[in-house]
Structure formats: C-alpha cells, structure tokens
TrEMBL record:
GO terms for molecular function: 16S rRNA (guanine(966)-N(2))-methyltransferase activity. Its EC number is 2.1.1.171. It comes from Teichococcus vastitatis. Residues 1-24 are annotated as: Disordered. Gene3D superfamilies: Vaccinia Virus protein VP39. The lineage of its organism: Bacteria, Pseudomonadati, Pseudomonadota, Alphaproteobacteria, Acetobacterales. This is 16S rRNA (Guanine(966)-N(2))-methyltransferase RsmD. PANTHER family: METHYLTRANSFERASE. Keywords: Methyltransferase, Transferase. Pfam families: Cons_hypoth95.
Length: 184
C-alpha cells in the first residue's frame, strides 16, 4: 500500500496485521481521487486547501492521500489501538505531523468538532450499517460542514440511505463500492 500522487507519492504505508483493519486498496483510492479531481461537482479545489476528516481511519490512507494532494489539514478518527499505532507511524513516515491530528475514538460517538470539514471519508467495517450512524453523529458534533463532500466505502452489496444527502457518484471496485454524496 502506498500514496498514489502528490508530494508523498510512492511512500509506503504500513497496515496492521490481521483482518480487523481493511485498508482501502490502492486502485480504489486512485479511482476515488481521480474522480474527485476531475468531477464537475468536486474538482481540484475540493481537495486542495481542504479540511479533511478521515473517520474509521485505520491506516490513514485516505486522509494521507488528501494531504499529499494539497489538503490543508486532516483529522483522523480511529478506535482500534493497533490501528492507532500504525496510523501514527504512517503520519510520521509521511512527515505530516503538523497538518494531521489523531482523534482516538468511535466515529459513531465523536467528540465535539475542532472544526467543520468540507471533505469527509468514511470507510467503516462492511455490513454493519455504520455510515448513516456516523454521518448523523458527526453532523451533530459539528464535524461535517453544510454542503460537505462525503465519500463512503461500502461492501458492493450494501445499500445506503442518507436523507437529505445528494448522491453525486457511485462506483463498484471488486468487493468495494464507493459513493460520493453532498451533505445536506
């Protein structure tokens, strides 16, 4: 697993052992960021200088990719202790300690927001219906800015209903499905 593009391009990211953390595959991450970079509803300006939230962060690959591509800052929310250790190591290896903040905890029960984010990545464990719960909790805590772009990775067979959110794009990549939505 590596950073695909930007100033940290090619930097290898570590992943925790076992199956508890399922990092977003390089090809899925590349497809997502290519879509964001070129979509009329997102574009380069959506990433560059953005305040990013990577909830269910795991290795931090999504938030670190955004930082590599010019995001101003990123918050990483993760509850697994082993994944938190790997996340810290990956942030250090990418030399992003100044622009990254780790928030140990559950995205479905987040702390009050330090700042609202305009770009939100959600990559929870599949088949647990965590995306709607996380979006509701993160919005209530002030993490998701009005009109923010939310990118969620789900299992290919999962459904997602977020009342008031506008679905902008949806792509399947093997066992994964990525859905990009505009927050209400």
């Amino acid at each position: 697993m590596r950073i695909i593009a930007g100033r940290n391009r090619g930097r290898t990211l570590e992943a925790p052992p076992g199956a508890a953390t399922r990092p977003t595959a390089d090809r899925v991450r590349q497809a997502l960021f290519d879509m964001l970079w070129h979509a009329p509803w997102a574009g380069r300006g959506m990433i560059e200088e953005a305040r990013v939230l990577d909830a269910f962060a795991g290795t931090g690959a999504l938030g670190l990719e955004a930082l590599s591509r010019g995001a101003a800052s990123a918050y990483f929310m993760e509850r697994d202790r082993v994944a938190l250790g790997v996340l810290r190591a990956n942030i250090t290896a990418c030399r992003e300690t100044e622009r990254a903040q780790i928030l140990p905890g559950d995205a479905t029960r987040p702390p009050r927001a330090a700042a609202a984010c305009g770009l939100v990545f959600l990559d929870p464990p599949y088949a647990q219906e965590l995306v709607p719960k996380a979006v509701a909790a993160l919005t209530a805590a002030g993490w998701i800015a009005p009109g923010a772009l939310i990118c969620a990775e789900l299992g290919v067979a999962e459904t997602l209903e977020l009342p008031g959110a506008e679905v902008l794009a949806e792509r399947a990549h093997g066992a994964a499905r990525v859905i990009c939505l505009r927050a209400p």
